Amino acid sequence: MASNPAEVLGTRRPDWASEDVVMLQDMATRFMSEEILPRYDEFEAAETFDRESWRKAGEAGLLCASMPEEFGGAGGTYAHESAILEAISHVGVDGFGIALHNSIVAPYIQHYGSQEQKAKWLPRMASGELIGAIAMTEPGAGSDLQGVKTTARKDGNQYLLNGSKTFITNGQLANLIIVVTKTDPAAGARGTSLIVIETDGVEGFERGRNLDKIGLKSNDTSELFFNDVRVPTANLLGHEEGLGFVQLMQQLPQERLQIGGAAIAMVERALALTIDYVKERKAFGQPVISFQNTQFKLAELKTEATIGRTFYNQCVAEHLEGKLTPELASMAKYWLSDLQGKVVDECLQLHGGYGYMNEYPIARMFRDARVQRIYGGTNEIMKLLIARSL
Phi and psi (nearest 5°) for 318? Predict the structure, then answer.
């Protein structure tokens, strides 16, 4: 019987994983296994998902699970989003960009949108009609969000949006994009605002190429261009201009925690697959698991993974209580993604030459894991943020 990634560590179920959270994870796992996994190679080859998969996820209740029921969500919490995220990684369909849509894009609208904005956008995000993205990174501004050059100039009851973005997750499919822009370029961080744009049929908006990445091939990642794009001033998030930088700082901890969640979930899958492999694969007439080096290496990895899982669970508990600090979220993002890289690399080594073959899942995981140390703020930036608390 194949090892279950969700059980490979044998850790105690955290208090926040209530029965409905566990049921949601089981349901999400079945959905990913039955609806997404059979077509995943197709999506990897196309380097994008299709809208039908998003609509099916919406019908299954896997979009915007933490949004209020009055706006089409399920009224859950980050615990429910974590359950969906972990199901994606445990099944091995990591390129499905619904986690960003669910627990990064939608919360900006929930926390800072007006009642009219929430009613307009969240139900359509929950159904999959709208696919979300957030456009932060620019060719000359990555982790340094204060260096954003995209501008939004008021023209009557509209903004004229100009600039370019790159490395935008869901960039080819997204038709609701939160754009990080400068409404007052002379004011530095205090001149930053978040403006929502529905892209369907909008003049001046262009998608660049679907970027050719090392891994996460099925997750479309794009350049975006805004050339005198007219956006209603009613699409500003927040009651006034200049709140964008504060809004970003308030929401980035959840994004970083989510990256940590994806990391530990992939670690668990890598270990489950590798344990199965070394039990079946023989060398010198005996299973690879019988060699002391294999046993010691897997013992080390399981120990570190258990520490990582315990740490992540504690971070989620603090987040649900509203106590997760930016420093702790940065620790989770950097340490768990570093651990992910280490564990996946060691697990590939235990596969021997087969680990380097694309037909084995560990090879794809090796490629997909690498970006985790970069996006959401590089791990070097995470250490800077942690250092400020010393």
Answer: -70, -40
- 230 SS3 class: strand
The answer to pTM > 0.85 is yes
Residues in CB range of 245: below 8 A, 6 or more apart: 145, 146, 189, 190, 192
- Give dist(CA 311, CA 264) in Å, integer: 10
> Catalytic pick from 138, 255, 359, 380?
255
With beta carbons less than 8 A apart as the criterion, state whether 135 and 13 touch: no
Give tens-digit pLDDT for 113-148. 999 999 999 999 999 999 999 999 998 776 677 789
> In 3-state terms, what secondary structure has residue 3?
coil
Do residues 91 and 40 touch, judged by C-beta distance below 8 A? no
Cα 138 to its chain centre, rounded Å, is 19
Active site residue 203: no
Please, which residues have CB within 8 angstroms of residue 147's CB and are 6 or more apart in sequence? 138, 140, 141
Could you tell me the domains of the chain?
A: 19-129 (1.10.540.10), 133-242 (2.40.110.10), 245-387 (1.20.140.10)
Q: And the tokens for 360?
A: 């084995």
Identity (one letter) of the amino acid at 135? A
